[in-house]
From TrEMBL:
Taxonomic path: Bacteria, Pseudomonadati, Spirochaetota, Spirochaetia, Spirochaetales
Boundaries of every Glycosyl transferase family domain copy: 209-373
Domain Glycosyltransferase subfamily 4-like N-terminal: 20-199
InterPro entries to which the protein is assigned, alphabetical: Glyco_trans_1 (IPR001296), Glyco_trans_4-like_N (IPR028098)
Superkingdom: Bacteria
Keyword Lipid metabolism: no
Molecular function GO labels: glycosyltransferase activity
Protein name: Glycosyltransferase WbuB
Keywords, ordered alphabetically: Transferase
Length: 399
């Protein structure tokens, strides 16, 4: 079976769409990816991709790259980046072979990346299968609060256009199902929950930190508005006055510089440490430092109900999770009993959770073991691929 995968992001950008496509090839599918030029999260396109490497094969996956303007910094450049990929990908679709059996859209932000997939599917009368990682237009509420805003209305129209066109939509968070059903009138029979997976190599590695007279907390990932790290720092400041602890932040994003300045401003430069963006190969070093890992998301809109993929990674590494988050992530943390979770934006509650974890060391090992056990049952790559391929085969064979 020949699969056309559409996603604005692909290797060397670090998204799960890459291992998914490579596993599909390993399992006997022919996969072509229509993507853009790598520039996430730095916003800068590497020299190697500015004028070359527009058509390449990576680990058996045929990768076709469209022209794209780097996202740089700020919402204006981000909008330009989104539009540039949309325009070039819509043109590129017409140049692709007509023999794909199914279109698979790995939908992150923006939802516009689904439009070239929709165009190909309609033109060649093949099924359209979408894996939804980000809810739209909900995701733009970080920048556009008013639903009466012209841009928001347009984004809602485009989002519905993409979602309604799909033969099947898989969602990475269970709470997405109600949103898509209510907001876009998507029949629940078209929706299926397939949670994301994480690297299983961490399951067998001992990341137990060395004994010390303080507690180390770790945050990994994107540092943007949605991650609500200013509230995390505010809670950490309160907790620091009661317990000896440190906070390590590994990642990059639009709020990094502002967050660094804020940490200095509130007098935490000696207890909050920034490491910038690091490669996946360097993650074990940070997991070894951490007594627990942090996950947080804003509660301003439905994107706060996302299950961030870092949750699965933390579990696989055997790290207790301290969360300030709602939705699927909160449910998973509570159901698995792998840590402590308070509602999103509850700064005082999160400060108490940090202190509670630092005080009750007898629970650390239990949280770690519970997380790994839950991961094995629910978030393995094998389970994910089996569910995904079942949907792809069913749609492709019934076309």
């Amino acid at each position: 079976m020949k699969i056309l995968c559409v996603c604005q992001y692909y290797y060397p950008e670090n998204f799960q769409v890459t291992p998914i496509c490579e596993q599909l090839v390993a399992d006997g599918y022919e996969v072509t990816v229509l993507t853009g030029l790598p520039n996430y999260p730095t916003g800068i396109i590497p020299d190697d991709y500015k004028k070359s490497n527009r058509d390449e094969t990576i680990n058996g996956v045929h990768v076709v790259r469209c022209k794209e303007i780097g996202r740089k910094n700020g919402p204006v450049w981000l909008g330009i980046n989104y539009i540039s990929f949309y325009i070039s990908s819509m043109k590129m679709v017409d140049k692709l072979p007509a023999d794909f059996d199914i279109v698979f859209v790995y939908q992150l932000s923006p939802v516009f990346m689904g439009l070239p997939g929709r165009k190909y599917a309609m033109k060649h009368n093949v099924p359209l299968f979408l894996y939804c990682c980000d809810l739209w237009p909900e995701s733009i509420k970080m920048y556009v609060k008013n639903e009466r805003n012209v841009f928001y209305k347009w984004a809602r129209y485009v989002s519905r256009k993409v979602y309604v066109s799909c033969n099947r939509i898989a969602v990475q968070s269970l709470s997405f199902i109600n949103y898509l059903n209510i907001t876009h009138s998507i029949d629940k029979n078209k929706l299926i929950y397939i949670p994301a997976f994480a690297d299983e190599k961490y399951l067998t590695i001992d990341f137990t930190p060395e004994d010390k007279n303080f507690i180390d907390f770790l945050f990994l990932g994107n540092i943007g508005i949605a991650q609500n790290l200013f509230s995390v720092v505010n809670a950490f400041k309160i907790a620091c006055e009661k317990r000896s602890m440190r906070l390590h932040i590994v990642g990059d994003g639009t709020c990094l510089q502002d967050l660094q300045h804020y940490v200095v401003e509130v007098g935490l430069k000696d207890t909050v440490f920034f490491y910038g963006r690091r490669s996946v190969d360097q993650m074990p070093r940070f997991y070894k430092i951490a007594d627990a890992c942090i996950v947080s998301l804003n509660a301003d809109n439905a994107t706060g109900y996302t299950l961030p993929s870092k949750v699965q990674g933390y579990m696989a590494a055997g790290k207790p999770i301290i969360g300030m988050i709602d939705g699927s992530a909160r449910e998973v943390i509570k159901e698995s009993n792998c840590g402590i979770c308070v509602p999103a934006n509850d700064v005082d509650g999160f400060a108490n959770a940090l202190c509670s974890f630092a005080r009750d060391k007898c629970f650390h090992e239990m949280y770690a073991n519970n997380g790994r056990s839950y991961f094995k049952k629910n978030f393995s790559k094998k389970g994910f691929m089996n569910a995904l391929e079942k949907e792809i085969s069913s749609l492709g064979n019934n076309a």
